[in-house]
Amino acid sequence: MDNTKLAHLVSSIGSLNGYGSSIAQTKKALDTGNVQYLKQGTEDSNIFKDVVAGIVAIKEIGFNEDGVIAVNKVFINSEEVFQNKGRKY
Q1: Is there a contact between 26 and 48 (Cβ–Cβ < 8 Å)?
Q2: What is the distance between the alpha carbons of residues 5 and 87, in angstroms, rounded to a whole number?
Q3: Helix (DSSP H) and strand (DSSP E) numbers for the chain
C-alpha cells in the first residue's frame, strides 16, 4: 500500500474528529509503525490506530454492510476521545 496516499486518507478521516497531525507526520508513523511521530500524543494516536484498523477491515471484508460493521467493531481506541468532546458515537 502507498503510505503517502494512506497518510492523506488517515489525515482526512481523522480531521473530522480533531486529528491534528500533518500528512508528513502521519506518513512517518505509517512508515515506522510508531505513533510517537504524531502531533497530539494520545488523542491523535488513538484516532490513527482506529482509522488504520478500519481501513484494514474494509480491505479484508469489502465496503458493504459487513465491512461497515467491522469498522465499527475496530474503532476502540478513540472512543474516549469522542466522549471527551461531548460526542456520542
Answers
A1: yes
A2: 28
A3: 5, 0
Which residue's C-alpha cell is 486529528?
19
CA distances from 66 to 32, 50, 57, 72, 79 (A): 30, 17, 10, 10, 21
User: Taking a C-beta distance cutoff of 8 angstroms, is the pair 40, 29 a contact?
Assistant: no
Mean of pLDDT values over 44-56: 90
User: What pLDDT band is residue 68 in, cutting at 50, 70 and 90?
Assistant: confident
Query: Which contacts (CB < 8 Å, 24+ apart) does range 71-74 have?
Result: 74/50
What are 12-43's pLDDT values in tens digits? 988 888 899 999 999 999 999 999 999 877 78
Question: Is pTM, for the whole model, over 0.85?
Answer: no
Q: What is the DSSP letter of 15?
A: H
- Are 44 and 14 spatial neighbours (Cβ–Cβ below 8 Å)? yes
